[in-house]
Specification:
CATH topology of the largest domain: D-Maltodextrin-Binding Protein, domain 2
CATH class of the largest domain: Alpha Beta
Largest sheet: 5 strands, mixed
Number of domains: 3
Number of strands: 10
Order of helices and strands: HHHEEHEHEHEEEEHHHHHEEHHH
Number of helices: 14
Shape: globular
CATH architecture of the largest domain: 3-Layer(aba) Sandwich
Radius of gyration: 23 Å
Helix content: 40-55%
Length: about 325
């Protein structure tokens, strides 16, 4: 069997996602007959049937479902490789740091200061984005490293936890619930988070299988995931939404029209520095060293807790070669 081509994988993924040869051909900007021939050739090359075809339906076979998963991963890897090559080939490439504004526990200035003292330091390009934008940026090669708060999909990423802190609920000071000192998630039933998800569901950090299978309840409203904190605070003051910010955000942003309250069964969040697996960039290693040293100095390890899955991923980092070697070297 000859090696698969990127073109073949793109054709296959388009048909697998559309489950319609005509729509897939339109999406690819080609005619349907050559696309059908290309898929038949791919099946012949692999020696398996990828689709069940009838006059009315196109359905993936079990072999097709497996190939779809791996083909997406392969195409993402190819795109990321090209993106990283273009970036590193620039005359003066910088370190692209992805994060959500204000969700750095106040550590970013100290981290950058410590990083710039590293021998391998290069200029840092801050990539501020909305919730959920950082992991795709890492996978697609648009970012080199990120500061992220749980929960997020950690597949194909290496992680070093920095600190774990409680989350509070931010709600309008005029909300009847603001009169109570503490709340439970059940008290927030019917209220919504800024991305449109139910507060009593989103407040629970999903387990690994939920994250990996994407079963996290309603799909977030893409129009709201990119709102900045000032916009979200305005919506909270109007009683339109509530928010579960880390305690560090609440401390840094007191507002008379917003009440911060403890939610006794709300899981804490862990801030971590995150980067792609198999990364061998000295600049990324220098940033990881700076971030971990600053966090350890600001929040001593004995006063912090590390939640799974981060303990697992930290062991993976320390038990493997590659980036671990340059993280610990000077």
């Amino acid at each position: 069997m000859s090696d698969l081509e990127v073109r073949q994988l793109r054709y296959f993924v388009a048909v697998a996602e559309e489950l319609h040869f005509g729509r897939a051909a339109g999406r690819l900007g080609m005619a349907q007959p050559p696309l059908s021939r290309a898929i038949r050739e791919l099946e012949r090359q692999l020696g398996v049937q990828l689709f069940e075809r009838t006059t009315r339906h196109v359905v993936l076979t079990p072999a097709g479902a497996v190939l779809l998963r791996d083909a997406r991963t392969a195409l993402d890897a190819v795109a990321a490789a090209a993106q990283r090559a273009r970036h590193i080939g620039q005359p003066a490439p910088g370190l692209r740091l992805a994060l959500k504004a204000d969700f750095d526990a106040g550590l970013l200035p100290q981290i950058l200061e410590a990083y710039h003292r590293e021998k391998a330091a290069i200029p840092v390009e801050l990539m501020m984005g909305g919730r959920g934008e950082q992991v795709p940026a890492l996978h697609q090669g648009r970012a080199d490293v990120a500061l992220l708060a749980t929960p997020f999909d950690d597949r194909d990423l290496d992680i070093e936890p920095l600190l774990t802190e409680p989350r509070l609920v931010a709600l309008a000071a005029s909300d009847p619930l603001a009169a109570r000192a503490t709340l439970r998630l059940a008290d927030l039933t019917g209220r919504m988070l800024p991305d449109g998800t139910p507060a009593d569901r989103e407040g629970l950090i999903p387990n690994d299988s939920e994250i990996h299978n994407g079963s996290q309840g309603p799909i977030p409203d893409a129009r709201r995931t990119s709102l900045d904190l000032a916009q979200i605070f305005n919506l909270i003051e109007l009683g339109s939404v509530i928010l579960f910010p880390p305690a560090s955000v609440a401390r840094r942003h007191p507002r008379p029209a917003i009440a911060y309250r403890t939610v006794t069964d709300l899981q804490p969040t862990t801030l971590a520095v995150v980067w792609p697996q198999n990364c061998h960039s000295p600049a990324v290693a220098a940033f990881v060293r700076a971030a971990t040293s600053v966090a350890a100095a600001t929040y001593p390890p004995e006063s912090a807790t590390t939640e799974e899955p981060f303990a697992r991923n930290t062991r993976r980092l320390r038990d493997t070669e590659g980036l671990q070697g340059i993280v610990t070297s000077s």
